[in-house]
Specification:
heterodimer, A: mainly beta, four-stranded antiparallel sheet, B: six-stranded mixed sheet, 12 strands, about 50% strand
Chain lengths: ~110, ~120
């Protein structure tokens, strides 16, 4: 299985600020994915991050709010910008290994 | 558009009972993949199984088994002799088969999850 780590594991932030979440994979992968899981809800894909190109955002998510970087084949960051309480969620990154998609442990974000 | 339905929001069973979690999917693709994940209270997502649309054989792994039926677009998950450690939220997910440069890098569409509680 792929080993995926995320930093920070949790954070409490004030509204209006931004938080950058880091995701590290233990081997090179072509694509990485960022998901959001709002409290008590399922997972929703935010965007797909391909190394060397702009991230592809799903409907309802925009780059100004969730800028993503993908500087190399093992690392990606997601920034949650200008946060509001509605952004309180778990943010998870994932990557595929031999067709099996693995997830990081998630970042629990609380916005006050 | 793809869709995954997990009609059972919550299930509670007494330890050692068998329990089946239902998953119904919709897709227009002829090639696709189905997944099950476990999310224990700690929050991490644990990969359980991936199935491609051309393989309808049932799968068994220890106390876990999966029944894939294309005729009813279902991919149900059964836990035999349940244990307290099985208590978690279980998600079924679907992805279309990637093509070309996207092969093996498919994004997932998740169901809403089933919260399973095993009562000691």
């Amino acid at each position: 299985s792929a080993v995926i780590s995320q930093k920070p594991s949790r954070d409490i932030c004030q509204r209006g600020t931004s938080l950058t979440i880091q995701c590290q994979v233990d081997s090179q992968v072509t694509m990485m994915f960022w998901y959001r899981q709002q409290p008590g809800q399922s997972l929703t894909l935010i965007a797909t991050a391909n190394q060397g190109s702009e991230a592809t955002y799903e409907s309802g998510f925009v780059i100004d709010k969730f800028p993503i970087s993908r500087p190399n084949l093992t690392f990606s960051t997601l920034t949650v910008s200008n946060m509001s309480p509605e952004d309180s969620s778990i943010y998870l990154c994932s990557a595929n290994r031999v067709g099996e998609q693995y997830f990081g442990p998630g970042t629990r974000l609380t916005v006050t | 558009a793809q869709k995954v339905t997990q009609a059972q929001t919550e299930i509670s069973v007494v330890e050692k009972e068998d329990v089946t979690l239902d998953c119904v999917y919709e897709t227009r693709d002829t090639t696709y993949y189905l997944f099950w994940y476990k999310q224990p209270p700690s929050g991490e997502l644990v990969f359980l199984i991936r199935r491609n649309s051309f393989d309808e054989q049932n799968e068994i792994s220890g106390r876990y088994s999966w029944n894939f039926q294309k005729s009813t677009s279902s991919f149900n998950f059964t836990i035999t002799a349940s244990q307290v450690v099985d208590s978690a939220v279980y998600f079924c997910a679907l992805s279309e088969a990637g093509r070309g440069s996207n092969f093996g890098n498919e994004k997932l569409t998740f169901g809403t999850g089933t919260r399973l509680t095993i009562i000691p």
